[in-house]
């Protein structure tokens, strides 16, 4: 009987030892998985949760969703926060937003940059030479310059009820219209800048063209309307809109240390106006912004390889 108890005791000790060993291996495996989850092909992930800010410009939203999808492939959990431009820069400054890929500088977002630049860092040029201006349909043959509006050429003022169709009031272009363009040409004496939204402006432009009626809108490149309609940006002889901007990716100054792999990706992320406009047409036709971004990524594997170089 004693031998039996002794055998059972040895057997129980053996089982306990095996269990502890298995737990130890499991812990090591979990630690290894945890370590691997914090890296993407040798690139340190850091803080995995990222918030990308974006305004209401469709060009910026489409590019932002491309960045979101690719950052998720790298291993990040990404939220897109769509707000007014001013809120976007405030978020970058206070850390509630980590990065944006739609900073129009030095002019369009210049006032926001000047206010918050001490807390921010430019990472990379996303798109070169984007333009702002007033645009009209090409069939408005007598209207080629902002001065034609000021001079009321061909009674354009009466035809338009002295109204220029704008976008959201917080947009950088609207600030430039109110502070530079309108007073620069004396338009603020007779003309009214109508506040609306990017979508409402586009709808008004489309409706006017369908009826072949005159219209003047605040517009920019890239924009899907240039793919759909024959438009012209009015000359700006006084230079009130300034030189064309570049679009930058911008983040808070601690972003590189917090999420190193995301920072590296943004250093590599750039896109042409023409490619952005392809997504904008899909969005205009009813496709969701993220769906349009995914379609573009799927149709452009070479670009995806460039953006994710070093991550795959």
TrEMBL record:
Residues 26-45 are annotated as: Disordered. GO terms for cellular component: ATP-binding cassette (ABC) transporter complex. Keywords: Cell membrane, Membrane, Signal, Transport. PROSITE patterns: PROKAR_LIPOPROTEIN. Residues 1-21 form the signal peptide. One of its GO terms (molecular function) is carnitine transmembrane transporter activity. This is Glycine betaine ABC transporter substrate-binding protein.
């Amino acid at each position: 009987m004693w031998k039996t108890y002794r055998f059972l005791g040895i057997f129980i000790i053996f089982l306990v030892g095996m269990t502890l060993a298995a737990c130890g291996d499991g812990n090591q495996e979990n630690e290894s998985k945890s370590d691997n989850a914090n890296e993407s092909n040798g690139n340190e992930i850091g803080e995995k949760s990222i918030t990308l800010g974006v305004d209401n410009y469709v060009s910026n939203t489409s590019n932002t969703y491309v960045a979101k999808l690719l950052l998720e492939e790298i291993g990040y959990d990404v939220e897109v926060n769509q707000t007014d431009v001013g809120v976007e820069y405030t978020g970058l400054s206070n850390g509630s937003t980590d990065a944006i890929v739609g900073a129009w500088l030095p002019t369009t977002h210049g006032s926001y940059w000047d206010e918050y630049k001490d807390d921010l860092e430019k990472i990379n040029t996303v798109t070169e030479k984007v333009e702002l201006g007033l645009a009209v349909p090409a069939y408005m043959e007598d209207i080629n310059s902002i001065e034609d509006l000021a001079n009321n050429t061909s009674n354009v003022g009466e035809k338009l009820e002295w109204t220029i169709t704008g976008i959201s009031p917080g947009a950088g272009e609207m600030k430039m219209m109110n502070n530079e363009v309108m007073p620069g040409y004396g338009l603020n004496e007779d003309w009214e800048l109508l506040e609306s939204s990017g979508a409402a402006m586009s709808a008004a432009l489309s409706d006017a063209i369908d009826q072949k009626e005159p219209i003047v809108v605040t517009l920019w490149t890239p924009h899907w309307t240039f793919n759909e309609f024959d438009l012209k940006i009015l000359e700006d002889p006084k230079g009130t809109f300034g030189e064309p901007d570049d679009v930058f990716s911008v983040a808070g100054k601690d972003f590189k240390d917090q999420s190193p792999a995301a920072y590296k990706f943004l250093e590599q992320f750039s896109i042409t106006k023409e490619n952005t406009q392809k997504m904008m047409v899909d969005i205009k036709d009813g496709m969701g912004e993220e769906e349009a971004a995914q379609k573009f990524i799927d149709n452009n594997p070479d670009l995806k390889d460039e953006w994710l170089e070093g991550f795959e």
